[in-house]
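User: Hello, can you help with two protein structures?

Assistant: Certainly.
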Amino acid sequence: MVKKVGFVIKKHLLTGISYMIPLIVAAEICIALGQIFGGIDVAENEGTFDFK
């Protein structure tokens, strides 16, 4: 019984991780595109939005 509970918990955790991986990759791609098109110091340039 204990092994079965551990298996179920492991299955749920691995399923959650596998659903989160595409979201993390998409977020990293968005960050990379923002740095490519806007630059790292985009907030310090004139004519940009200041979110401070």
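That covers the first. Now for the second protein you mentioned:
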Amino acid sequence: MSLPRGPLSQLRRGHEELVLGLLRKHGPLSRGELGKLCRLSRTTLYDILAELVATGAVVPAGQQDDGPRGRGRPAETLTLNPGAGQAIGIDFARRALHVAAVNLAHEIVGAASEPHDADLPWERRVDLAERLIGRLGGGDLRLGALSAIGAGVVGPISDPDGGSGSDLGSGLGSGLDGDTGGGIDTGFGGGIDGGPGDAGEPLPHRAQVLLRERFGVPVLLDNNTRLAALGEAIWGAAAGGRDVLYLRLSHGVGGGLVIDGSLHRGAYGLSGEFGHIVVDPGGRPCSCGGTGCLETVASVRAVLDAYRERGGQADDVRGLIEAVERAEPGALALLAEVGADIGAVLAALCNAVGPGVIVIGGELAETGAALLEPIGRTLDARIMPISRHRVSLRRATLGEAAGALGGIALVLHESPLLSRYPAGPDLAAGAPPPSPRHHNLVKEGS
């Protein structure tokens, strides 16, 4: 297990992060230019740069003229080394697996997805992850150079400050501390069935151990929908927002909150379970043990079942979308009702936490205006009048890659949204989240 860092070590890491961040923001820089930007002493800066060059994180980028220098050769410029290491994000969704990778220069190496059965055992999920990761970057991704993996799983994850004693990176979601709030309850929100061989072991721990064994790097874990919220808030539909509410309408219904610029996890990692807010006390039983939760009316299965009960024919969301495109009255009426329920929940949440941006994601968001407009109408009707014109309702933009990209952001650990996460002592320092200019590549690979 990695030992905690002392104050001097933490200060040095901060200096390294500062230098690496400047190289990312400005591109190749000379030592003189870095000195002006970082305001560190010459001795400290040169010492930091020597270490970064020795470890391969920073490499020479050629020569440039720093201005009038008199006699002597031009100043050497330094840049981030794209081949020094990669960070991997994995989203273990209920019925699909999504992966994405970035290099140390914060360029998206690639992204990939593949569906699977909901009861696929964890060992085979990790096999699938390894295979998909092997495809990234045209098969040229150097797995041995991986710095860390950030992974999302379905359901609640134990508090990162729980002191698990895990040696799996920062201990996020390790499930080792015996806390009753930790791990994933396989009945909560229709959580993942871990498959054969998982009995008696918390599912987050199972995923974390298998990934650690397979790739030999630190593994950070969190709820996959919360990571999708992080991805959308960093470089997706809500990029730059300090107060963001994200709702994903998929096979389950959940979300995430960014409050005052930080991703909010809540006690025992239970923040964002919006799907278990009651909308109909006399409604259908929910997998969480309650009755009439939002998930019983707004999940993919619930909506498709309701549509078929009304005589509609659709085997999947694509079929429902096609009915909407035909302006089929039954489909439009159903989505109007579902949108009203969603809007009522969002209005209550807005009155409680006051977000500036609401992002709607998940497969059902693909129905577009037929769902989003009823959501917006009910939101406007139920929210406090003073907030009505201060909340922006937006559709998610990152698609299936959102959770995996959120996992990368968790690993890179530079976004201000992660300011309240504990820093993993054995993670590579100084790597901020990928730049928004890579959106198209992410979408094309997802």
